[in-house]
């Protein structure tokens, strides 16, 4: 499939968005805030010193060169005042360090000229030569600090050599020169230490962002980061008027493979599939592990025909080892329903169809009967019919459950959600998300313990009861505080229902009603006194 220059440009426009690094771990905003603060403080300090210098010149108008010095100081002051509202813009520039370096050197030159015409070494302005060194040490690179230090020492030497009428003693001049040398050494040391600290912080942020967004076993994006990227790609596809496709895949009979060969072999299989998918993908595709043995690939600028070809290629590559095989389904974004769950559902449905007709293939491979793979765990004969019936029942049950859940998804009265067996949120409506005090997107893929840690000690026994006994928990009152409303105790009427396929519990449906106001108005109980 060929990609023209326009398509490359559209991808480049979203290069920054492709990074799954959470905003709280992205150091760019922190760096921008630092530079904005540094430039603002630096300009204000230099402005204050310039005002003081101008006042000094105006109070000593009888001294030589005052017209020139007042004019030079006034122009400098106007330039500084003009720069104050532009500090945020300068802080966003990639050349902000070079800008600050150039301004520091220029400030030293202006100061040197003023000192020279104000009486040389005897001028009180000579003490201001330390300011450029201090300013450089706070933010500039080591080589820039060294350059500013050498420039300052050179400027001091120039003033001293060309001063024909020196009244200060040689010892005072020597001590001031030594003070400048010491200040330069300290500034270089501070800059070097700050640079090392910054490098360590960048490494730490990179590691944290990796842990937050990358599945450590397979090297693919994790559940939350993948769905964030899918939303970005959907918006980009709509904006650019380009197609977008999605591959959904999983390992066939992976539980049986784990039971036969052990979990270490299962981890190796997952690791190999993740590595294969990332290697077989295009540079701008996104590969994610959605959980367990399920993987997905976002295909920007890929039509349904392109997706079919890529799915077939990936199916062959991922099943090359034969143990276990991989089935692949795919779907194209429908512009009339440009939402993530719709394209995921369609690709998932195609994946089930693949499993019904043979597994170990993509939807484009000719239909075959099920044959045992090298693991010896694939069913045949009557098992094939049982698998087909199981997949149809799973598809039907999943569709019915999602239809019911979506009907209540937008309710503002009842909190509803769905968690998997690991107690991770798969679905959550806005009302329940508001109870937790976070956005819906921030809760999907996270465990209940992560979202509401203060309530989890009460909730954990209830949820484990549903998973272990396959029986619901009805009208159980739970009380506690949330981050959305700290300091106030709320009560919720909690109902938990097992969602099963056959005899296996695949997750828990959640229905929550806030009864705090009801208890206060009907029973006369204060929320702060509510208890279990």
Describe this structure in words.
Helix 6 (96-117) packs antiparallel against helix 7 (130-139) and helix 12 (263-280) packs across helix 13 (304-318). The chain has 20 helices and nine strands. 31% of the residues are buried. The protein folds into three domains: 18-211, no CATH class; 223-405, Reverse transcriptase/Diguanylate cyclase domain (Alpha-Beta Plaits, 2-Layer Sandwich); 408-529, Beta-Lactamase. The chain has helices at 5-13, 15-18, 27-59, 66-83, 87-92, 96-117, 130-139, 142-161, 170-213, 223-240, 254-261, 263-280, 304-318, 340-356, 382-407, 430-436, 440-443, 448-451, 456-469, 516-522, and strands at 244-251, 286-291, 294-300, 326-332, 415-420, 425-428, 473-480, 490-501, 504-514. Strand 2 and strand 3 form a beta hairpin. The radius of gyration is 34 Å and the shape is elongated. It has 532 residues and is α+β, with helices and mostly antiparallel strands. The strands form two sheets. It has a five-stranded antiparallel sheet with strand order 6-5-9-8-7.
What is this structure's SSE topology?
Blueprint: H1 5-13, H2 15-18, H3 27-59, H4 66-83, H5 87-92, H6 96-117, H7 130-139, H8 142-161, H9 170-213, H10 223-240, E1 244-251, H11 254-261, H12 263-280, E2 286-291, E3 294-300, H13 304-318, E4 326-332, H14 340-356, H15 382-407, E5 415-420, E6 425-428, H16 430-436, H17 440-443, H18 448-451, H19 456-469, E7 473-480, E8 490-501, E9 504-514, H20 516-522
Antiparallel strand pairs: 1-3, 1-4, 2-3, 5-6, 5-9, 7-8, 8-9
Helix pairs in contact: 3-4, 6-7, 6-8, 7-8, 7-9, 8-9, 11-12, 12-13, 14-15
């Amino acid at each position: 499939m060929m990609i023209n220059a326009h398509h490359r440009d559209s991808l480049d426009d979203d290069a920054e968005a492709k990074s799954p690094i959470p905003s709280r771990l992205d150091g760019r905003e922190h760096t921008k805030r630092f530079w904005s603060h540094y430039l603002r403080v630096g300009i204000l300090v230099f402005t204050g010193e310039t005002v003081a210098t101008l006042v000094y010149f105006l109070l000593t108008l009888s001294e030589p060169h005052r017209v020139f010095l007042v004019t030079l100081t006034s122009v400098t002051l106007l330039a500084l005042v003009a720069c104050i509202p532009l500090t945020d813009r300068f802080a966003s520039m990639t050349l902000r360090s070079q800008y600050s370096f150039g301004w520091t050197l220029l400030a030293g030159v202006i100061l040197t000229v003023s000192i020279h015409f104000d009486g040389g070494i005897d001028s009180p302005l000579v003490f201001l030569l330390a300011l450029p060194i201090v300013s450089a040490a706070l933010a500039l690179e080591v080589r820039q600090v060294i350059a500013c230090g050498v420039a300052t020492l050179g400027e001091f030497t120039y003033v001293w050599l060309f001063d024909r009428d020196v009244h200060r003693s040689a010892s005072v001049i020597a001590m001031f020169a030594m003070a400048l040398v010491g200040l330069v050494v300290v500034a270089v040391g501070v800059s070097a230490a700050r640079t090392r600290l910054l490098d360590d912080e960048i490494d730490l942020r990179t590691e944290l962002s990796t842990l937050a967004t990358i599945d450590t076993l397979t090297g693919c994006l994790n559940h939350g980061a993948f769905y964030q990227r899918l939303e970005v790609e959907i918006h980009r596809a709509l904006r650019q008027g380009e197609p977008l496709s999605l591959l959904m895949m999983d390992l066939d009979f992976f539980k049986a493979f784990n039971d036969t060969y052990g979990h270490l072999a299962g981890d190796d299989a997952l690791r190999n599939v993740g590595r294969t998918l990332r290697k077989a993908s295009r540079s701008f595709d996104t590969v994610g592990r959605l959980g367990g043995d399920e993987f997905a690939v976002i295909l920007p600028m890929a039509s349904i025909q392109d997706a079919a070809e890529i799915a077939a290629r990936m199916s062959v590559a991922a099943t090359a080892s034969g143990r276990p095989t991989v089935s692949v389904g795919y779907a194209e974004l429908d512009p009339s329903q440009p939402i993530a769950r719709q394209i995921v559902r369609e690709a998932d449905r195609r994946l089930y169809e693949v499993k019904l007709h043979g597994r170990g293939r993509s939807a484009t491979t000719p239909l075959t009967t099920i044959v045992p793979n090298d693991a010896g765990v694939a069913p045949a004969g009557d098992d094939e019919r049982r698998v087909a019936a199981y997949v149809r029942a799973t598809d039907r049950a999943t569709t019915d459950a999602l239809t019911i859940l979506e009907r209540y998804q937008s309710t503002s009265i009842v909190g509803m959600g769905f968690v998997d067996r690991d107690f991770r949120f798969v679905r959550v409506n806005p009302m329940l998300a508001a109870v937790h005090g976070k956005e819906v997107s921030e809760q999907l893929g996270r465990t209940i313990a992560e979202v509401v840690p203060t309530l989890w000690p009460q909730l954990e026994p209830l949820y484990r009861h549903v998973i272990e006994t396959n029986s619901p928990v009805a009208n159980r009152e739970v009380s506690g505080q949330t981050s959305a409303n700290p300091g106030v105790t709320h009560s919720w009427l909690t109902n938990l229902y097992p969602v099963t396929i056959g005899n296996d519990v695949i997750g828990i449906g959640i229905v929550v009603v806030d009864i705090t106001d009801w208890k206060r108005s009907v029973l006369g109980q204060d929320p702060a006194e509510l208890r279990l």
